[in-house]
Design brief:
The chain is of the alpha+beta class. The chain contains 12 helices and 14 strands.
Length: 372
């Protein structure tokens, strides 16, 4: 793709993306920190993509020897190499969303494979510090490596349908069910993907999940008549001005939507109703707040109002006890408030809310499931 076409494609995407993304960013006083900068996001993404299409081995040589010398006419507000490198992390989410938006359509014939993303040569593994906590040793068909794996699913036209980046030691078969969940037809892979467990999981049934008010007996019976089964009961709670028996430190910090979504992905095994899980969190808007401790995240409504709704409460590894400290700190941070938790919380959350004195809502919901 030529430079001009590439830029216009990125620029059209960024106009919509930045408008939506800025809604999710935290606001802190008069200076919001949302200045566009001399070099726009679409220009930075274009330059970064050009590097990966070039034959240069390092971005530094590409930028200093090619961009600064030959592309000044296309990018009149070019910034220094050091400044560009400092801005690189801000491109991660936009580029990920862009790639995701450019996925092809499933044709019924798909192929899955993985490739290594080496951080460094094997001999330098003990000295590597950049990805020390995230990169892992793995083995590919051509030997051992240190870094990550890129898992890809493409259609018969070579168009990307799904992608997944994992640590180098992850089994190639592990992310497959998640990547192909929305695909249909046949999936082809090499012998590394042979597994009865994987085969059985891909022979998935269609599942419909819904919530219905438990006290609405006619509706419950109607769904049961059509084959829906009750999975669990969902509860809601309310408490006016929580009284804490003991003081607690204020180790709680304000976070943002992107950090919350990453936390959810890392704890994807947590089984939450859709109202307090990722699909609903995408609708997050200011003045809602994302707050966290080292073991849990919470999304609450505007804390300046008299009543605060706990829109979601997500403990690490699904361990409910990890959320206790977060609730205590929230009650300390925003005293003398009315706290509400809508009828979205599974029964396992009940002891947590009850220990603070929350009163249970009269209405409850059944989460029901129908498998074809």
């Amino acid at each position: 793709m030529c430079l001009t076409k590439m830029f216009f494609k990125y620029d059209d995407f960024c106009k919509d993306f930045e408008f939506q993304w800025n809604k999710f960013l935290l606001q802190s006083g008069a200076n919001s920190g949302n200045r566009s900068g001399k070099l726009t996001l679409s220009e930075r993404m274009t330059i970064f993509t050009l590097f990966h299409q070039s034959n240069y081995r390092t971005f530094k040589h590409f930028y200093k020897n090619y961009v600064e010398r030959n592309l000044k006419q296309y990018f009149p507000n070019l910034i220094s190499y050091e400044r560009f490198v400092a801005l690189m992390p801000s491109m991660l989410i936009p580029l990920t969303v862009f790639v995701y938006s450019q996925r092809g359509k499933c044709t019924g014939i798909s192929y899955v494979d993985s490739t290594k993303l080496s951080v460094c040569a094997n001999i330098r593994i003990p000295r590597n510090k950049v990805f020390k906590d995230t990169a892992k040793r793995g083995k590919s068909s051509i030997g051992w490596f240190y870094g990550f794996k890129l898992h890809l699913v493409v259609n018969d036209k070579g168009e990307i349908l799904a992608f997944y980046i994992s640590a180098g030691n992850m089994d190639d078969r592990t992310p497959v069910p998640q990547m192909v969940s929305s695909l249909f037809g046949k999936l082809f892979g090499d012998k590394g993907y042979i597994s009865k467990k994987l085969f059985d999981s891909l022979r998935r049934d269609k599942k419909f999940v819904l919530e219905v008010i438990e006290q609405n007996t006619p509706a419950v019976k109607l769904y049961q008549k059509f084959g829906f089964k009750i999975i669990r009961r969902l509860h809601g709670f309310e408490l006016n001005n929580p009284k804490l028996k003991e003081t607690i430190d204020n180790k709680i910090e304000e976070s943002n939507l992107s950090s919350l979504l990453i936390f959810l992905l890392q704890n994807s095994s947590i089984n939450l109703p859709w109202q307090i899980s990722m699909p609903n969190l995408i609708k997050f808007n200011t003045p809602d707040r994302v707050l966290k401790t080292d073991k849990a995240f919470a999304v609450i409504s505007d804390p300046e109002k008299e009543t605060i709704a706990i829109k979601t409460l997500i403990p690490k590894d699904g361990k409910i006890e990890f959320a206790e400290g977060l609730l205590r700190r929230l009650f300390t941070l925003y005293p003398e408030k009315i706290w509400k938790a809508n009828v979205h919380y599974p029964e396992e959350f009940m002891p947590l809310f009850k220990q603070f004195g929350f009163q249970e809502h009269k209405l409850t919901q059944f989460q029901m499931e129908y498998i074809i």
